[in-house]
């Protein structure tokens, strides 16, 4: 990316941050409609993932869900501008409801460490800001190649005290230390990890390479594990935050059991608002035995 392109992108980003979130969602709906009509990779992967995960859903219903999903995908992208650029208090004012708050606060008060799983649904960036307002939090971060974009993201995500650590051994050690101090960490549980950092477990009944990091951290520290999702409230510029407890089996010695519980916790988040999940991500791109079964030519 050239310097001029980077400058233009950041300028556009700052301009978008001035617009109401509700208006940006309207724009996102239009962009999502274009993504559908263009028939590109985003639509193809979304349709394939929905066919994989909801094989019994009537085709017409899956089409409707796919169309809505692409609209929410565009909304997620456009919402980044105000969520990253506006004062934290302004972003927090968009959170109009918090479900499971008592359980979340109880887990924090236990002082034995808290692992928050934030799947790719709704606005996980809002989740991050909200958590940092409640207590000290450390989260893994993989910087982009562009230095200017990297600084933009770092400033946005750490502006209310979040500690960002690298996605390497030193980062894992930092997360472990934070949990041992009774602090909170945030992890994205539904990304495809490297083969050496994961194991296969069912996700919507289909084998998916799943991170073992959460199981290892929970087992070693005894930390509580919860999910957190910031879901869009329809016809508004607001969010509804939902916390849910995850079974202690997420730290089970049986790896398959632990990873299955982890994936089930993500499935439960998806069930809250399937259209807001990031279905265009190639979650099943790696399969047991190294076979390429899905996303052919995508």
Q: What layout of secondary structure does this protein have?
A:
Elements: H1 3-16, H2 21-38, H3 41-53, H4 59-85, H5 88-92, E1 95-99, H6 101-109, E2 114-117, H7 124-134, E3 137-141, H8 147-158, E4 163-166, H9 169-180, E5 184-187, E6 198-203, E7 206-211, H10 213-221, E8 224-232, E9 239-245, H11 255-272
Parallel strand pairs: 1-9, 2-5, 2-8, 3-4, 3-5
Antiparallel strand pairs: 6-7, 8-9
Helix pairs in contact: 1-4, 2-4, 3-4
Main location: membrane
Keywords: Acyltransferase, Cell inner membrane, Cell membrane, Membrane, Transferase
Protein name: Lipid A biosynthesis acyltransferase
In short:
The protein is α/β, with parallel strands linked by helices. The chain has eleven helices and nine strands. InterPro entries: LipA_acyltrans.
What's the arrangement of strands in the largest beta sheet?
Answer: 1-9-8-2-5-3-4
What is the N-to-C succession of helices and strands?
HHHHHEHEHEHEHEEEHEEH
Distance between the termini: 24 Å
Q: Helicity level, as a percent range?
A: 40-55%
Number of strands: 9
- The average pLDDT is 94
Beta-strand residue fraction: 15-25%
Overall spatial form: globular
Main structural class: alpha/beta
Structure in words:
The protein is α/β, with parallel strands linked by helices and 298 residues long. It has a domain at 90-290. The protein contains 11 helices and 9 strands. The strands form 2 sheets. It has a 7-stranded mixed sheet, sandwiched between helices. Strands 6-7 form a two-stranded antiparallel sheet. Helix 3 (41-53) packs across helix 4 (59-85). The longest helix is centred in the N-terminal third of the chain and has 27 residues, at 59-85. It is globular and about 45 Å long. The mean pLDDT is 94. Keywords: Acyltransferase, Cell inner membrane, Cell membrane, Membrane, Transferase. This is Lipid A biosynthesis acyltransferase. One of its GO terms (molecular function) is acyltransferase activity.
